[in-house]
Amino acid sequence: MSYRDLREFIGAVDALGVLRRIEGADPKLEIGGITEVAAGRPECPALLFDRIRGFPPGFRVFTNATTSPQRAALALGIDPALKPLDALKAWMEKRQTLKAQGPVAVNDAAFLENSATGHEVDLAKLPAPHWHRNDGGPFIGSGSIVVMRDPDSGWINASIYRVQVHARAKVTVQFDHQGRHGAIIARKYWDQGKPCPLAVVNGEDPALFIAGFEYLPAGQSEYDFAGALKGAPIEVIAGPVTGLPLPARAEIVLEGALLPPSRETLLEGPFGEFTGYYAADKRPCPVMEVAAVHHRDDPILLGSPPMKPPRFHFGLPFRAAGIWSNLESAGVTDVVGVWQHVAQLMTVVAVRQRYDGHAKRAALIAAANSYMGRLVVVVDDDVDPSNLADVMWAVATRCEPSEQIDIVRSAWSSALDPRIPPPDKQRGVASHSKAIIDACRPFAWMEKFPATSALSAEDVRAIEQKWGGALEPPARNPPGAVRTRSSAARKR
Ligand SMILES: Cc1cc2nc3c(=O)[nH]c(=O)nc-3n(C[C@H](O)[C@H](O)[C@H](O)COP(=O)(O)O)c2cc1C
Ligand SMILES: [Mn+2]
Question: Which ligand is closest in space to the CA of residue 182?
Fold first, then answer.
């Protein structure tokens, strides 16, 4: 892995030519707005904000870290030049062979360069952005990991939950649902009438950011996954307040305790969500009393605000790699690709059908683990699942709705689902239905299905080679230059 921490990752992004430095932006709405506009551009640059309005120079915010396929691959240690579906496949395969690598303790940590404790703690000193117009306040944690220790087994959980700033030393931590490991662990402390010690770690190594998003089994630490991904253990140091093992190369760390909700809650949100809506109202949320704030000199906050789809935190759909792997381990053969569109709300599986029921078998397994996704589509192997136009071509031409759409009810969603009717949401309904769209040629008469008129990949390659030059925009030709076919072909 070519980077050891966030700073080195930013250096690698800069070397690819896709880092933009921005000075003078306001943390109130401007940083969020610029981030969202940039994420909607084809190049989707990463952004490093400095000289943020109201803060000392050097206090920085880094956004769009992994929002392009290229930078998502870079963060995984996979060749960023690969085509996105090939990069995802490489990740799926690498992910299956990862061997958990526990962290190592070190004696010093960069984030201890500056510490404030007790009454000195003032979160207003850090440039936590107010990301979207109707957000309930600034969120310091949009891409932070929340570290907790299971009181029974000692297992360290370190995954991403959003963190809103409410006061000098008070933040809230939001669990989408009660199955989150953080929610389960906190409950164990609270059931004994105790606060839950925790740390919010920001400006973490991108490998930890990725690990924090993975669905790992309970009992397995995200630190071990990140260490495996990097091929080197995560360096940790015991937090001075909590004793929790904290990544030594992180930029900003808050230590403290999550109070039992019987003692205190605060109204959290709303917060513009990854679906592109404010679907969860302001609601009571567990409160963290911040006992200490530590940060590196010139700290960098890693911001990853949810944005309207198709923008997403990760330019490669990592959860599609998980589903792809689920399919393989369940024994489904001939899966040629899995992808997610609309910020993971639509899952597509491409299979080379070998037997009747093959496509539906794949679709049902994929549907089971498609978080909040109402649409699961299965396509033949000639369709590129990562190409939405191609997928919709298959849906519109191969799927007879009266025969090939199934509805699965009461399936996995969450309180962030914009389409659960308000009275149901109030009753705690957090499930929805999923449409399984079989957009494959019907297996029974697959051979008789009209042949496609589309060019084969070889045809395209041959045409590109012979005629591609003639298709280039004239503006790029220097004035007066006569371009021959062979010189154009040499260029590519
Ligand atoms: C940028 C980002 C923000 C997230 N915010 C939240 C959140 O606020 N609450 C939540 O429950 N999950 C959130 N998630 C999803 C969880 O991090 C993810 O499902 C993780 O696997 C949960 O880990 P756990 O199994 O250890 O609970 C977020 C993910 C990302 C990438
Ligand atoms: Mn976990």
Answer: 1
- Taking the CA of residue 173 as reference, the ligand 1 atom at the shortest distance is 8
- Please report the atom of ligand 1 found closest to the CA of residue 180: 27
DSSP label of 450: P
Phi, psi (deg, nearest 5) at residue 318: -55, -35
Look at ligand 1, atom 20, and give the residue with the nearest C-alpha: 213
Edge-to-edge strands, sheet with 46-50:
19-23, 46-50, 60-63, 300-302
Question: Which residue lies with its CA nearest to atom 5 of ligand 1?
Answer: 161
Calpha distance 315→320 (Å, rounded):
12
Ligand 1 neighbourhood includes 317 CB (under 6 angstroms) = no
What atom of ligand 1 comes closest to residue 306's alpha carbon?
1
- Pairing relationship of beta strands 265-268 and 283-295 according to DSSP bridges: antiparallel
pLDDT tens profile 280-298: 889 999 999 999 999 999 9
**CA–CA dist 326, 364 (Å, integer):** 11
Q: Is 141 helix (H, G, I), strand (E, B) or coil?
A: strand
- What pLDDT sits at residue 478? 59
DSSP 447: G
Note if the bond before 310 is cis, omega within 30 degrees: yes
Q: From the CA of 158, how far away is ligand 1's center (Å)?
A: 10
Sign, CA dihedral 121-124-126-129, equals positive
Model confidence pLDDT, tens digit, residues 94-134? 999 999 999 999 999 999 999 999 999 999 999 999 999 99
Q: Which residue, by CA, sits nearest to atom 17 of ligand 1?
A: 160
Tell me the residues surrounding ligand 2 (ion) with CB < 5 Å: 157, 159, 181, 216
Q: Is the CB of 214 under 6 A from ligand 1?
A: yes
pTM assigned to the model: 0.94
Q: Which atom of ligand 1 is nearest to the CA of 271?
A: 8
Burial of 292 (0-12, 13-18, 19+ CB in 10 A): buried
Element (H, E) at 268: strand 265-268
Give the CA diameter of the chain: 82
pLDDT along the chain (492 residues), means of 10: 93 98 98 98 97 98 98 97 97 96 98 98 98 98 98 98 98 93 98 98 98 96 98 97 98 98 97 96 95 98 98 98 97 98 98 98 97 98 97 98 98 95 94 98 98 94 96 73 51 46
Cα distance between residue 245 and residue 105, in whole Å: 8
